[in-house]
Amino acid sequence: MSGANASGYLESRTMKTETPTVKMVAIAADEAGQRIDNFLRTQLKGVPKSMIYRILRKGEVRVNKKRVKPEYKLEAGDEVRIPPVRVAEREEEAVSPHLQKVAALSEVILYEDDHILVLNKPSGTAVHGGSGLSFGVIEGLRALRPEARFLELVHRLDRDTSGVLLVAKKRSALRSLHEQTAR
C-alpha cells in the first residue's frame, strides 16, 4: 500500500473510531440542570459508562476549565471540554440487524413536533435495550433520527405491553412532562 493510500485508509478508520480533537460545548438553557455524566452519555454515544466516569475521575472533562464530579449539575453558559474518546465501531453494527424494526418504527409514529415524539409501541418490543436485549424503541429511534441531539423516554412500557409511548426531543420537554405526570 503506498504512503498516500495508507494514510487515507488510516484516516477513514480513525474517523469511525474516535473523535479527532477536543470538543468544546457551550451549555444552552434547555440543557441546564442535568448532571454532567448524563450530558456526556448523550454527547459520547456508544462510549461505555465506565469510560465516561473514568475520564471524569481523571479530570479530562472540564467545566469552565475546572474538574467536576459526575454529579455536577450543568448551568446555562457553562463551557464543557470533552476530550477525544475512542468509540467502539460495533455501535453501528448493533443496529444494522434490526433495520426492519427501525423501519417499522416510522410507521407507528402518531405525532411529532420539535419537543416530543408520540408513538404506538407494539407488544413484544422493549422500550430500551439491556438485560440481553440489543435493541429497543429508543435505540431504534436514535437510528431513525441520527440528527436528533436529544431523545429520551418520558416513561416506560413493559415489553409485552402495547400502547402510547412519549419520547422527549428536548430536555425542557422531558422535565415538563415528568412534572406533569408526577401530579
Automatic annotation (TrEMBL):
Substrates-to-products reaction catalysed: uridine(955/2504/2580) in 23S rRNA = pseudouridine(955/2504/2580) in 23S rRNA
InterPro entries assigned: PsdUridine_synth_cat_dom_sf (IPR020103), PsdUridine_synth_RluA-like_CS (IPR006224), PsdUridine_synth_RsuA/RluA (IPR006145), RluA_PseudoU_synthase (IPR050188), S4_RNA-bd (IPR002942), S4_RNA-bd_sf (IPR036986)
UniProt domain RNA-binding S4: residue ranges: 34-93
EC number, UniProt record: 5.4.99.24
Pfam families assigned: PseudoU_synth_2, S4
Molecular function GO labels: 23S rRNA pseudouridine(955/2504/2580) synthase activity; RNA binding
Keyword Ion transport in annotation: no
Keywords: Isomerase, RNA-binding, rRNA processing
GO biological process, alphabetically ordered: enzyme-directed rRNA pseudouridine synthesis
Domain of life: Bacteria
Keyword rRNA processing: yes
Task performed by this protein: Responsible for synthesis of pseudouridine from uracil at positions 955, 2504 and 2580 in 23S ribosomal RNA.
Family, similarity comment: Belongs to the pseudouridine synthase RluA family.
Protein name: Ribosomal large subunit pseudouridine synthase C
